Amino acid sequence: MIVDVHTHFWKKDLDLGPEVERDMRRAGGAPGMLEITPESHRAAIAGAERAVVFGLRASNCGLNVKNDHVAEYVATDPKRLIGFACADPLVDDPAADEIKRCVDEFGMRGVKLGPTYQGVHPDDERLRPIYAYAEKKKLPVLFHQGTTFAYRAPLKFANPVQLEDIAYRHPELKMIVAHMGHPWIGECVSLIRKQPNVYADVSALFYRPYQYYQALKLAEEYGTHRKLLLGSDYPFTTTQQSIDALKKMNDYAAQYNLPPIAREVTDGIIYRDSLAELGLT
Ligand SMILES: [Zn+2]
User: Fold this and answer.
1) CB under 8 Å to 61, separation ≥6 — which residues?
2) Per-residue confidence at 29, pLDDT binned at 50, 70, 90?
3) Which of 118, 129, 219, 264 makes an SS bond possible with 225, Cβ 3.0 to 4.6 Å?
4) Is 78's pLDDT higher than 80?
5) 88 alpha carbon to ligand 1 midpoint, in Å?
6) CA–CA gap between residue 86 and residue 55 (Å, rounded)
7) Is 31 a residue whose pLDDT tops 80?
8) 145 Cα to the center of ligand 1, angstroms
9) How far is residue 233 CA from its own chain's centroid?
10) Could you give the dihedral angle defined by the CA atoms of residues 167, 99, 57 and 238, in that order, rounded to the nearest 10 degrees?
């Protein structure tokens, strides 16, 4: 089973403020990347049997994606698409009510948060009721926990280590650190090694090949590669590009005389049944 655990959906004109494009341009990204349609999303996940879809609500950075837009798209292929709900602690008051609404109204099955984009600490008291609810309802929570191109996202809230208090308080809660917490990959590997229900996804790492190589080698050496999940971070990459990059990782290693990454690591990420790991089957 190939599962893409990390894809975005939004309606650019309705959901994104002008600063998103401006921030992307400044960070060297192509603003055309921000266009998403149901057709482009479907094409991008062609390599996956299942895909998790969410919108980020972070008014602090101009991201105001309506969960209703995500739900509308997920409803076009409910067997294959799995909707995750997002709440903005600065707008949705109380934030947990927006998550509950998405579960009750749309049957969403997990939570997406980006505390740094949202301008709050991951353990902010406005987010805490979400963790209690998600643990009780067995909803995995995927965090953008790592750096970002967004100017107004404070780095002090972005390190993956900041999730550990939440993991201690909610030991049954399944948590996923997106992008292996880049560039704090060592911290992410340490966290998923010791916290039984914390995982990481490898989305949007392959276009920095040396960092990605090091990330996979580090996970291999610490024996944490079994907790790495496939993700694309569409619209920034596609599922198939993410799979191809894993398959070609050892061509890169050979080119620079680096020791190869074990097949068990790369194939494990591609074929892992992430839905079973996250309790979503
Ligand atoms: Zn993302």
Assistant:
1) 19, 20, 23, 117, 118, 119, 148, 150, 151, 152, 153
2) confident
3) 219
4) yes
5) 15
6) 7
7) no
8) 10
9) 7
10) 80
Q: Please, what is the average pLDDT of the chain?
A: 97
Distance 2 CA to ligand 1 centre (A): 18
Q: How far does residue 20's CA lie from ligand 1's centre (Å)?
A: 13
> Could you give the percent of the chain with pLDDT greater than 70?
100
pLDDT at 32: 79
CA distances 2 to 46, 51, 94, Å, are 10, 9, 35
Cα(274) to ligand 1 centroid in Å equals 17
pLDDT the model gives residue 79: 96
Q: Give the number of other Cβ atoms within 10 Å of residue 170's Cβ.
A: 18
The tens digit of pLDDT for each residue in 177-207 reads 999 999 999 999 999 999 999 999 999 999 9
C-beta neighbour count of 12 within 10 angstroms: 15
Alpha-carbon 46 to chain mean position:
18
pLDDT tens profile 139-182: 999 999 999 999 999 999 999 999 999 999 999 999 999 999 99
- Which pLDDT value is given to residue 27? 85
Spacing, Cα 87 to ligand 1 middle (Å): 15
What separation in Å is there between the alpha carbon of 257 and the centre of ligand 1?
32
Query: In angstroms, what is the span from residue 32 Cα to ligand 1's centroid?
Result: 16
Structural domains of the chain sorted by starting position, each given as residue range(s) with its CATH number in brackets: 3-277 (3.20.20.140)
Radius of gyration of the chain (CA): 17
Helix extents (H) in 92-228: 95-106, 115-118, 128-137, 164-169, 185-194, 209-222
Token pair of 25 as six digits? 């341009």
